[in-house]
Amino acid sequence: MTVVKNDLLLFNKFFAEYQHSFIRFAQTYVRDDVVAEDLVVEAMMYYWENRTRLPKDTNVPAYVLTIIKHKCLNHLRHLQTRDEVLNNLSIHSEWELKTRITTLEACEPSELFNAEIRTIIDKVLLKLPTKTRRVFLLSRYENKSHREIAAILNISTKGVEFHIAKVTSILRLALKDYLLLFILLFYMLVNR
């Protein structure tokens, strides 16, 4: 018991004698008083736990200072790694934000909807009977009058009107989700 008590007294004396110097040393590198104190206490505890394994002629202050040095290095390397990760995350975040901004700037909603609407119209037209599709194409894409279409297809103008009404009805149903958007876009254009 007296050996342990003597060891503890020697340790306390050693700790009191070198604590401030060791903390100043650590603080010089880690630049944080609390971290420096923690590293010094950890180093002292490490020494205390391993003191019986050390050779008798060990220079204890140099030994503890070496432990503190390695703990400071580990702490600084950890900070460096953390900063590199944060920097990489920041670079990635900045790139991602720039990409979103660029994409949004390049986005033309009318073109997106035009492409979608065009796809829907093309699908609908493919499902129509040949004559109905031909009437619609001549009317809407070639701007032919009902009389001209009737002459080209050898049908009556009432037949042309029937086919156009049929396509219009089918397209209105296929494009019902876009009707509100058309109204909104038209309202925005008119009220500029």
Q: Between the first and last Cα atoms, what is the distance in angstroms?
A: 93 Å
Number of helices: 8
Percentage of residues in DSSP E strands: under 5%
Q: Can you give the mean pLDDT?
A: 85
Number of strands: 0
Low-confidence stretches: none
Structure, described:
- This protein is mainly α and 192 residues long.
- 86% of the residues lie in helices and 0% in strands.
- It is built from eight helices and no strands.
- It has helices at residues 2-30, 33-50, 60-106, 109-127, 130-140, 146-153, 157-174, 176-190.
- Helix 5 (130-140) packs across helix 7.
- The longest helix has 47 residues, at 60-106.
- The radius of gyration is 42 Å and the shape is rod-shaped.
- The model has no long low-confidence stretch (mean pLDDT 85).
Question: Which tags fit this structure?
Answer:
mainly alpha, 192 residues, 8 helices
Topology record:
Blueprint: H1 2-30, H2 33-50, H3 60-106, H4 109-127, H5 130-140, H6 146-153, H7 157-174, H8 176-190
Helix pairs in contact: 1-2, 1-3, 2-3, 4-7, 5-7, 6-7
At a glance:
The chain has eight helices and no strands. The chain has 192 residues and is mainly α.
